[in-house]
Amino acid sequence: MAETSNQIAERLSGKRARVLFVLTIVFLSQQASYFSSRHDAASAVGHFKIAAWLVLSIVLLAMLATGGAWLRSAEVRALLNDETTREHRKTGFVNGFWAACVTAIVIYAVDLFEPVSGRDTVHIILTMAIAVAMLTFARLERHALRDA
Question: How many domains does the chain have?
Fold first, then answer.
């Protein structure tokens, strides 16, 4: 028996909340790996690490901005992107913005004592902003699903 669009959207909304947590852990562990070893940005390995981070960052930002489910019908995407979800997403972006601001201030203070490269600064700020936005969105979605 075929699922209705409502059933598909309900199932996917639960999956989305879980997947966002997992993707955030993967994203942060990738960053831990990146910063735990010194790398030569001009080497092939350095290029690969930076490219992997950029691609994952862009995909996660696109997922946050649109809600994901790109391969689903417009009807299912609309059901997944209800008013509550849009509000959760907005709150996630606001928290991500504040995380970026606080991270920039911390890096500025650290740079007074230990030089931090521009590339590392951008990397750290963007990583923190994306991670906080994703965790906020996922947490709010999970709470909403649990309360429903």
Answer: 1
Is 0.85 topped by the overall pTM? Answer: yes
pLDDT digits (tens, 9 = 90+) for 88-102: 999 999 999 999 999
The confidence score (pLDDT) of residue 59 equals: 92
Distance CA 40, CA 2 (A): 53
Looking only at Cα atoms, what is the longest distance across the chain?
65
Work out the angle at residue 95's Cα, subtended by the Cα atoms of residues 52 and 89, and round it to the nearest 5 degrees.
80
**pLDDT given for residue 39 in this prediction:** 60
Q: Which of 101, 99, 80 is nearest to 28 (CA)?
A: 99
Range of the domain at 99: 5-147
SS3 32: helix
